Structure prediction request, 879 residues.
Amino acid sequence: MRYALSIVCLCVGLSTQVMAQPQVGITTPQTNTTFAEGVDIPVSLTATTSVGSLSAVDLLLNGQKLTTFLAATATQPYSYTLKDLLPASYTLTARATGNAGAVGTSTPVAMLVTFADGTVGPYAHWNFDKGLDYWKLVSDWRNEGTFGWHGTPSLWGFNIQEANMAASPGISLKAGETYTVEFVDACKSNLVPIRVLYAPAQSLQDTTFIFGYKSASTSNFLVRRAGTFVAPRDGIYHIIIRNDWRTGAYQKMYFDNLRVRGNGLNNAPLSKITFPAAASLTVPIGSTLSLQSTATDPDGSVIRVDYYANSQKIGSSTSANYALDWSGYGVGTYDVTSRAVDNQGASVGYVPLRLVVVANNFTSASYLGGTSDAEDVRGSVIQQNGAIVLAANLGAVSFPGVVPKLLNGATATSPGCLLKLTADGKTVLALTRLAARVTDLARDSTDNLYLAAGADGMLKLNVAADTILWKKTMPTGRYVWRVDAGPGGTNMYLSSTSTDPDGQLSGTEIKVQNREGVELGNFGAVSQYSGDVVVDEATGTAIGVGFRNFNAQTNAGRLPVYVPVIRGMSFNCATTKYVAYNWEADSLLADGSRNPRWLNASNNNMADVRAFRASLGLDGKLYVAYEVAGGNHALRYSPFDIMQKVTVVGGDNFADFNNSNTEIKLFVGRYEPATGQYALGQQFTARLPSTKANTVFSKYGAIAADEDGRAYVTGASAYGIPITVDHQPGDYLGGAYLLILSPDMATREAVVRLTTDGRGHTLAIKNRDYFVWGGMTKTVLFRVDPLQPNAGSLQDGWFATLSRTALARCTTARLRTSLRTGAWQSPNTWSCGLLPTLSDKALVSPGHVVKLTGQAAANQLIEQGKLLIGSGAKVRIGE
Prediction:
């Protein structure tokens, strides 16, 4: 059978309507006309359209729009005046747009603007309209608005009796050529002696006099001064203006339109580092610093950007943003510059970044996360052989050569894990999945593990974390969030009906058990809310911390307040050894006598205080981390006598709660675990640039102490912590913090962060020199030999292993260095967040401006010659 295939082609005619373009032409000036510099150039143009109507007409100079004439309001011929064009070749064009969107462009008009002598030779020109970014300014020089030519900004100098200098951006000159330097519009002043010099870039002090004069008082910028010099060698030069006033009086001077002319002159390209944005920063050795720069060339093109650390080239970039990752630097101080190279080979460095590299104390730092958006590291212990065990909530994640162990009915996707690592944190030994969520971890002296597993209850596992030894299950709606264990295996767990382990845990029940999981006693609840549990086997004390809320009697009536509670009980919970704090709401007892436990018995103790985290230090003392919402808190008094003040170490602004309201702050307390007696305490807050206190949380975190009584606290901070070694340099000073207090709590030995947000959830100490730290982040993490170098999701866990002995200590640094421009009395201005005292020296770093108002100690530092002012730095007094 044969089939016939018929193909039918339907051809549809396509009609294209050609939209008529508007016609536009420039009638004046005529093309190829030459104008002298300073002459106003009138421009006239007309436009028509045969379809519809005109909408707008644009006038462009060298492709850049000068103005737009709206056809509905402007009258033809359209007119415009070009003013102050610098000597160069120009092209004028006009562009007309019809109401239907059609566009027509005029025939280009070429123009030439020359110097007065009719030439257009190479030249450099600065009119200060775009600022002074690439000028080197020493003493009081600045960009001043409205004083320059036609009311534009000018270079403003305020003469003083010390050295002063305003040095131009670099220009490339040829040996033996004669160059003219002139102030086209200079200077509005009053008989101020001026020296104009030039200097090779190798040394701005290597100056040669060009010309000088005393300017006459004038109300405009028509005073012209000029001088010539011969370049002694090829290279980059700078034009320098110095005020030479020596009478002790002060005068102001203004300059505008400074110019250098001569054969072979080439403007050096302009470049500066834009990221990091800080003028100076401190980074740890072993980190990678990401650099980016801007680069332009006034009379040519940029072919690449080279980066230098001091005089050593560290790399190059040829693409936009000119990015470079720099690593491998040693401990020391570097001036890092980006140096653009133009098409004639000229290059010069501007605006250095001051980089201080310090010893890195981290042996490892890594992301821990898969594809889940709710990942974190919640608990940690260090076993006797140094192996690290982390309680973490992880999504889909795997490690080379590690086959996950599945326990407690878990699947391969169950988030709640135990992750065992080598002592340096660089290798995974085992991964066990065993719960929907884990939040806390403890160990005994034989390295058995005690795990808080939320709805999955409490589990005890063996040393290898691959066998469940016993388990305590919870009824529906109850979750185990906190756990602790003593060396002999006596253990406690805190369960709650609250679904958020970081919130105010209500409906709590605390149990004490022996190493076999047999219940020794029912602790009940610490108070209205419970925060943490601690086992002290040395004194047979089971400890819980928490807080309660009530309306207390005040002079203003009854107001709500939170008060802390520490409860110590025997292991069988039959005996209450002590209840610390837990103050009463009313001033009077039932018989009308004064209540000795009234919260306000001494002095308005109405700041909210919540006890969230506690632990038994390796020194055998009890440590509690509180959140305090004000300076008038009850922790200033004995836990058993509201009338007896106790020692709060205090110190600088970060250890004092002045200039604060209800923002959350940290209080660290040390106690005798058997009696609850207070031993010592210290405060800690962040500070805004205004010096107002800012938030530091402990409820997300942990507290620990080493054999010497050195306290370690982690949590989450808002802006303004006094970072000693910043592993995430930048303008934002907050994140998951690590605070280390000296044994006497008087000194912050370190304030460290690895990420600018997130939380520090856990700490574990092996001994006084080695510990592990972990938490969660949603931003970039500082990494060292990471197990996972990249983030796996929007929220990842992280951990770090580190040595305390390598952390930078502010106590040994008697030189306080400015970290940024700011107020003298702001701790954020100074290194370590410490204001300079009379026993210190103070260095105002190059380029910084420190404003001083009414500081006696600062004035004495100045008088004693202990104030050092770096190149280009300033101290402004009385502002």
About this structure: The helical segments are 856-863. The chain has one helix and 68 strands.
